[in-house]
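Hey,
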Amino acid sequence: MVITENTKISELIKANEKAIDAIASINKHFEKLRNPILRKILASRVTIADAAKIGNSSVDVFFLKLAHLGFTVNTNEKSETPETRTDHHLWQQMESKTVMEMDVRPQIASNLDPFNDIYNCVNKLQANQVFKLINSFEPIPLIKLLRQKGYICEVKKQNDVILTLIMKTDSVQNAMESVTTHEDTDFDKTAAHYRNCTVTIDVREMEMPKPMISILEECSKLQSGRALFVKHKRVPQFLFPELSALHFQWKLKKIDEDNVHLIIYKND
């Protein structure tokens, strides 16, 4: 199999399951690939180039490991990550249509989640209007989610600043999953039901993206009839689509501005 920076991790595993051990041996960041549920969620979305960024590694290290398994490396096809495939003509067109912009670096630095603010701005866009997001890193999960909904997203790096232009098209579906800010009225009832068969995890002190990875890892270990009780400091919006895809249900209770409780379970 010929591989490039754009080859999905799932394609590698499909071609040769030994790729799991090869990638996991690169560094501790990739040990999670051994977990079947995390592998199912992440491997189909992440390219070799994406994985190298996430794991603070290089594509050359991946190529070396995979070449030992018989993969043929093509280095001529460059990464399709947003930063390297910016269409400069399209960027100029989109920039002229910018109607709003937001710098989320202060929120990130204060350990705050800017999801709701971004959500509100994106939802206000009319067709062919553009929202500019200013950040310190590439918001890859957000970009992938918006592209799935029909938005056009372009990213450009300027020194240490990452600029993302998001344009709404005529074919756009609802911007993102509905923002969950309410308290489920039957949270306490569900908590009582699972009182003696609950696994508890506290992710409030974890840095992103460890909370999502840790929660999904614990979900993969849940036995039938048991639930996962999560102590979080924010409503984890990007977690909910993943839970839905895995057929989990959840209840949410907002304790205060810095504390959110979740119960995650599957119906018997």
